[in-house]
Amino acid sequence: MTGTSFVLNLTLVPRLKPDDDWPAPSPPMPPTGYSPVWLLLGLLLLALIIAYFLVTTLLTRRQARAVRQHPDAQPADPVTLQSQLAERVDALEQRARNGELGQREATEELSRAVRKYVAVITGIPADKMTLRQLQQSPLRGTADAVAKFYPAVFAAEPPENFDESVRAARQVMSGCH
């Protein structure tokens, strides 16, 4: 005797065996088919998720804007503009050395003067462009100069590099736009 049969023999419940009074088992139920509605709902949900990500990506990506030159802009006299910028740079340098302007303010003025000069000479709105836009434009010299101005203008403690900023402004003036 095995352990299981021994336990069954000890129970008080009699073992039930099918006999003739029991109904015959029914045939198994056929498998239920899935409704095509669920497939369509799943595909619709998947399409909505993909559409959401596409719309979100298209609406939030940065648009690359090309720098356009204004064809109607009148070419300015470069010699006159260059001499005006040179005078302004000299005046700013003198005021900074005399202590009339702090290094941050003097560098801000240099940045404005250089950007305005380049905007008038080239017709490209350098005075309204960010550093990233300048770096993506054909104005490499201006982008390098503005990159040198940024630490003095935006740092919590500006570095002592006003001479380097003046050199960068004069380099743009000399024709390295």
Helix percentage range: 55-70%
Strand content: under 5%
Helix and strand content put the structural class at mainly alpha
Span between termini: 103 Å
Return Rg in Å: 41 Å
Q: Report the average pLDDT across residues.
A: 78
Shape summary: rod-shaped
Tally of strands: 0
* Helix-strand pattern: HHHHHHH
What's the helix count?
A: 7
- Please mark out the parts with pLDDT under 50 across 5 or more consecutive residues, or reply none: none
Q: How is the biggest beta sheet arranged?
A: none
Structure description:
The chain is mostly helical and 177 residues long. It has a domain at 78-173. The protein is built from seven helices and no strands. The chain has helices spanning 3-10, 36-60, 78-98, 103-122, 131-136, 140-154, 162-173. The longest helix is centred in the first third of the chain and has 25 residues, at 36-60. 20% of the residues are buried. The mean pLDDT is 78.
